Structure formats: structure tokens, C-alpha cells
């Protein structure tokens, strides 16, 4: 992050992490410039970004639909309801728990669908060393040419 609070470097990342800090720990392992969506305040970004977010599921066991509620953290909804922030999203990365079956990383699927951006990668909980390497590589490849932001990633496995 720049001293002025803006995103720096080719890997521009915005993320949300709850008080569990799982997503925050993953982002720290990535070692890329990132801005965290706060729990209580609102922020506005000034450059295109990839959004990394966890899924809040209820573990209902059903197959969620694209109009489902309760999966995307409220702070992320507020962030994306700002038209300026929403206009700058370029892709998503999802964190989740495979114990929730079809709900695994579903928040990122919803954001990808509603914002019409690619879903680059998904990982479980705090991610593995392999997940960290894969996300770093995917972000670097993605930002090499911002004009390719609309192309789906080869790493996506729905």
C-alpha cells in the first residue's frame, strides 16, 4: 500500500477478513500490496483491483442459487454497493470451507456473476503453501495485461 492509502504494484488486491483473521493471514503470506475492507468503516479505492473474500454460509446443505442471501459479508456488500468501487473490480478470489459442500466459496461465485468478472481461484480456510504460490502466480499473470481481465482463468474449477 502507498503511504497515501492507495494500491501499489502490479498485484492490486482488496480483501475482507472477519475477526477470525483467516483471510488476513492468507493475504499476509501472499506478500502483495493489499487493502483490507474494514469491519466498521467504509473505504473507496482508486485503482482496478482483484477482490479476495470469504464465504459466510449457513451450512444448509442445499444447492445455493445466484439470488441467495447471506453468503457475501455485509462489509463487502457495502463496499461493492459504492458504484465507484464496483466499477473498478476486475476479478475475484474465494476463501471457504469444503465442509459446506456446494456453498464452498459461493460468495466469490456470486460476486463474479453479479459483477461480471472472472473467478480466478478458490482455496480452503487459510490456504496451503501451494495455494499461496498459485494465487501469486495468478495475480501476476492477470495483471500483466489489464485488457485481459475479462478472460476466465485456467485455474478456476467450478
Automatic annotation (TrEMBL):
Superkingdom of source: Bacteria
Single GO MF descriptor: FMN binding
Gene3D superfamilies: 3.40.50.360
InterPro entries xref list: Flavoprotein-like_sf, RNR_Ib_NrdI_bac, RNR_NrdI
Family of this protein: Belongs to the NrdI family.
Function of the protein: Probably involved in ribonucleotide reductase function.
Name listed for the protein in its UniProt record: Protein NrdI
Species of origin: uncultured Mycobacterium sp
Lineage, opening ranks: Bacteria, Bacillati, Actinomycetota, Actinomycetes, Mycobacteriales
Amino acid at each position: 500500500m502507498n503511504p497515501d492509502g492507495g494500491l501499489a504494484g502490479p498485484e492490486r488486491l482488496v480483501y475482507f477478513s472477519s475477526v477470525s483473521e483467516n483471510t488476513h493471514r492468507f493475504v499476509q503470506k501472499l506478500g502483495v500490496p493489499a487493502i483490507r475492507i474494514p469491519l466498521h468503516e467504509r473505504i473507496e479505492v482508486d485503482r482496478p483491483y482483484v477482490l479476495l473474500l470469504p464465504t459466510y454460509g449457513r451450512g444448509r446443505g442445499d444447492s445455493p442459487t445466484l439470488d441467495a442471501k447471506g453468503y457475501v459479508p455485509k462489509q463487502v456488500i457495502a463496499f461493492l454497493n459504492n458504484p465507484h468501487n464496483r466499477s473498478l473490480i476486475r476479478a475475484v478470489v474465494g476463501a471457504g470451507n469444503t465442509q459446506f459442500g456446494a456453498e464452498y466459496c459461493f460468495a466469490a461465485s456470486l460476486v463474479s456473476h453479479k459483477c461480471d468478472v472472472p473467478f480466478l481461484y478458490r482455496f480452503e480456510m487459510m490456504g496451503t503453501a501451494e495455494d499461496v504460490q498459485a494465487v501469486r502466480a495468478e495475480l501476476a499473470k492477470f495483471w500483466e495485461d489489464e485488457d485481459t481481465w475479462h478472460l476466465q482463468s485456467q485455474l478456476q474449477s467450478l
